[in-house]
Specification:
The chain is α+β, with helices and mostly antiparallel strands. The chain contains 5 helices and 12 strands. This is TNT domain-containing protein.
Amino acid sequence: MRRLTVLSLFACLIMAVTASPLAKREEAGNVEVVEPSDNEVDAVGAFPLDFGVENNDGWKDKDHRKRCTEREICKGVVPVDSEKYLCRDKRLGPKKLPTRFPLDDITHPYNRFGGICSAAKFLSLWTGNNGAFVYPPKDGFQLNTNDDPIKGTIKLRYGTLLDRFGSEYGQYLSPAEAPYPQRALPPSNLDTPTTGERYPYNYHVYKVIKDLEVVAGPIAPWFGQPGQGTQYFVSTNIFDLISQGYLKPMPLEFSKIF
């Protein structure tokens, strides 16, 4: 009986890591991609249960003991942006995380810095010399033991619901309402566009209205997040897929945000 219990727990853990939904990474503009080095932070161990917990009252470290104050978090960061961003740096995402369904569920549990209490350290780990975020190699797919991306071409059928955090110039989608930590995105993807409030936290929902071929696979850990969700990479940007009749934007009310 003890052996069966252990095996059952192991099977559940494997399912939690491999079967979770998701998508991914990038903003419009130039994106720097680098191969990981021996000096990279090991994000593989950053499974959600190991994370510190962040909410709108503050942060705790990965051992759930020390509460990080905003002063500690922002030490060493030069404030250059609006006060709505954490540490007044839009790369660090909004100061306040979502509090309404479903976005509150998507972003909880979530620690934007992967369990460290220093925004400056986080930026030093995940940005390049130009201050922009450095993105993972091989289009962000998890790599196998030969360092090849784990991916395959599939067809998404009519009625499939997808989403993304980011502008419609991107080429990545995820299964709708997938947990944010499993997307391995930087916190800046949660920034509401400055052009308007139509899409709070830059969250977009789409319905497949014509069968859509995508490259699908698990997401590599990055930005201090565990990844391991599923991402869909498409051949052109989201604007084009809408104009070509593959995707239909869904109103936010559809996702019960309001």
